[in-house]
Specification:
The chain has five helices and six strands, in the order E-H-E-E-H-E-H-E-H-E-H. The longest helix is centred in the C-terminal third of the chain and has 21 residues, at 149-169. Strand 2 (39-48) and strand 3 form a beta hairpin. By secondary structure, it is of the alpha/beta class. Bound molecules: guanosine-5'-triphosphate and magnesium ion. Magnesium ion is lined by residues 18-19, 35-36, 59.
């Protein structure tokens, strides 16, 4: 049994369903979620195969007045999930990808929410994501409805699984520092 930690942050526009999705993942009620003010934080112990994972989940606010806070929470995230609303014409995914560009998380999830209303989105995801996948970003796309916790849990599971896989492939290696013994001072003169 291995133990590990994952920091997951969820971002996206106001009202796309970020809090509802996290509630769904955490088996909490998903209806009547109040709009997020600033930031919310949850923890969960998650089991996957041989792993016990201590997860910290950061729920950011989509309202524009809070956007300046977001980088403080996306920084250092192993997984960032960008949520968009399938029922609105503009996903705004580009904006959020640009915002997390310098964070370079191990995994970026692109999650279309509200499949209970519509599953069709007019934007070409491939087009939007191409510049990032070309730079070898690990991007996982999917759709869900926060009302259907199975769809949410499936997507989170994929992201976590892929993260663990990447982590094993690229383990953090400590730099090798060689410390040589200081030279003994020999007597150079006899006075
Ligand atoms: N039909 C439908 N409505 C949803 C779904 N998920 C969330 N909603 C609704 O969308 C609205 C916004 O949900 P939130 O989860 O508060 O959205 P948010 O992204 O956290 O919003 P901010 O905190 O303001 O950034 C609420 O009225 C939810 O009930 C879904 O899967 N289907
Ligand atoms: Mg919210």
């Amino acid at each position: 049994m291995s133990k590990t930690k994952i920091k997951l942050t969820i971002v996206g526009d106001h009202n796309v369903g970020k809090t509802s999705i996290l509630n769904s993942f955490l088996d909490r009620p998903v209806f009547n979620t109040p709009t997020t003010l600033g930031i919310d934080f949850f923890t969960k112990t998650y089991h996957l195969n041989d792993y016990t994972i201590q997860m910290t989940l950061w729920d950011t606010a989509g309202s524009e007045r809070f956007h300046s806070l977001t980088p403080a929470y996306t920084r250092g995230s192993n997984i960032i999930i960008v949520v968009y609303d399938l029922s609105t014409p503009r996903s705004n995914i580009n904006y959020w990808l640009r915002k997390i560009e310098t964070d370079r998380p191990n995994i970026v999830g692109i999650l279309g929410n509200k499949t209970d209303i519509t599953t069709v989105n007019n934007e070409d995801l491939q087009d939007i994501l191409f510049p990032y996948s070309r730079q070898n970003w690990n991007i996982i796309t999917g759709k869900c409805s926060s009302r259907d916790s199975k769809s949410v849990k499936n997507f989170f599971r994929q992201c976590i699984k892929q993260h663990l896989h990447q982590d094993l492939e690229n383990p953090f290696k400590l730099p090798i520092i060689s410390i040589s013994e200081p030279k003994k001072k020999g007597r150079t003169c006899c006075t």
